[in-house]
């Protein structure tokens, strides 16, 4: 949909100003002993996976307003992620949700992925909805259900997800459970946990030795009295009981208001159980908005924990799967995703700028103001030239959203797929 020449043409009029801004910032950072080029290299390497279910409009339970040109098949979803990756060079993988994305023609999918320079990130199971002709219902739970037959159905579904993933070269399986209860007394809380643990162990047994199983937590929704896996502590204990391939997944929207998420991130990283992220923006709960739109400082603090831990030689290295988990009600989904990735890269760049030695010194001396000023210095630095340079060096657009608009991509997608095409997902 976009040729290399077209991207170069789109960048051309912006290049002089970009170079000016980049050189100025590089000089400024050099004075502080920081290497702008090195930061750009780290940004170029950083990749955020795109969920197949975030390429169309989500809507709320009150309504949905299709963007037009939404992908109607897995192939079209891959094409959309290919467009994003062409524009920013930072989204080279797609996560799949089963059964929405059951692969049909596996060799053709491999070909398409290769042509777009993409891979499959994680497989995600869905036991939060009943599928047509399903033998048992998940209305009262799946992996935690009181009835063994329901649990077995849910276990088999997860094993099927891993099988599909193996065909496509994925290495991560994510489990998010909607299981829980709405009323006091409805569920025996300890038994529900034990049944879940047993079911997860059966799935874990089917996990190939080079895969990771991520366990996501969420405090509420769809259930409002108890969720079987409400918090990172529960995820953590489940992972502990399963084995080293089980890791906790932190979805930024899955916390009660005012939770110190960066501390959770630091703690899990320290304990060797931080396996992945679902990035999104949240004002009240699982809002699934643009990452970093309302709380950029929080996103920066999260990246600060990650960077700090990565530079701590006393900690074991970690492989963390970064993914966006968003839903789009008012924005063009592709523009929203480009904005999210941009905010994520910006937060990462700022975290790389933190003067860690000085911060340690201030912390050690209990110099509260100095420590906070160091964080503010990094956060308030305008890092957009670094992020833009990373896009340019990856062959992308200096300004991905502007390029997406200038190239008229949504219009082309509408022409190809129609105005009322609907994507599978929530
Ligand atoms: C649930 O709220 C969640 O965050 C899980 O990651 C699901 O897989 C995803 O959203 C889509 O429903
Ligand atoms: Mn999620
Ligand atoms: Mn969620």
Automatic annotation (TrEMBL):
Keywords on record: Isomerase, Manganese, Metal-binding
Isomerase in keyword set: yes
One Gene Ontology term of the molecular function aspect: isomerase activity
Xylose isomerase-like TIM barrel domain residues: 103-285
Protein name: Sugar isomerase
């Amino acid at each position: 949909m976009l040729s290399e020449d077209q991207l170069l043409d789109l960048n051309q009029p912006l290049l002089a100003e970009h170079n000016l801004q980049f050189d100025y910032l590089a000089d400024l950072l050099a004075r502080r002993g920081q290497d702008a080029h090195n930061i750009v290299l780290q940004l170029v390497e950083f990749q955020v996976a795109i969920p197949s279910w975030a390429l169309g409009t989500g809507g709320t339970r009150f309504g949905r307003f299709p963007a037009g040109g939404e992908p109607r098949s897995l192939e079209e979803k891959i094409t959309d992620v290919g467009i994003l990756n062409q524009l920013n060079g930072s989204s080279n993988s797609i996560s799949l949700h089963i059964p929405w994305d059951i692969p049909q023609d596996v060799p053709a999918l491999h070909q398409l992925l290769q042509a777009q320079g993409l891979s499959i990130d994680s497989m995600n199971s869905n036991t939060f909805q009943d599928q047509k002709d399903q033998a048992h219902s998940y209305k009262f739970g799946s992996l935690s259900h009181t009835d063994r037959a329901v649990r077995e159905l849910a276990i088999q579904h997860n094993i099927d997800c891993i099988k599909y993933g193996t065909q496509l070269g994925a290495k991560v399986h994510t489990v998010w459970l909607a299981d829980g209860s709405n009323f006091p007394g409805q569920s025996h809380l300890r038994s529900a946990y034990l049944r879940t643990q047993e079911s997860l162990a059966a799935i874990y047994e089917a996990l190939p030795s080079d895969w990771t199983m991520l366990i996501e937590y969420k405090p509420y929704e769809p259930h409002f009295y108890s969720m079987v896996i409400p918090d990172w502590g529960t995820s953590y204990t489940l992972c502990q009981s399963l084995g080293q391939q089980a890791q906790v997944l932190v979805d930024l929207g899955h916390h009660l208001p005012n939770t110190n998420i960066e501390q959770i991130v630091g703690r899990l990283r320290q304990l060797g159980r931080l396996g992945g992220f679902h990035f999104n923006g949240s004002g009240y709960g699982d809002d699934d908005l643009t990452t970093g739109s309302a709380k950029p400082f929080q996103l920066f603090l999260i990246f600060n924990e990650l960077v700090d831990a990565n530079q701590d030689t006393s900690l074991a290295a970690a492989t963390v799967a970064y993914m966006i988990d968003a839903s789009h009600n008012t924005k063009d989904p592709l523009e929203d995703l480009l904005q999210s990735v941009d905010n994520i890269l910006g937060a990462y760049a700022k975290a790389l700028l933190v003067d860690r030695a000085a911060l340690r010194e201030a912390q050690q001396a209990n110099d509260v103001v100095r420590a906070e000023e160091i964080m503010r210095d990094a956060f308030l630095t305008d890092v957009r030239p670094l992020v833009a340079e990373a896009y340019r060096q990856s062959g992308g657009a200096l300004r991905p959203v502007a390029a997406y608009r200038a190239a008229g991509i949504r219009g082309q997608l509408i022409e190809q797929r129609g105005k009322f095409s609907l994507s599978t997902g929530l």
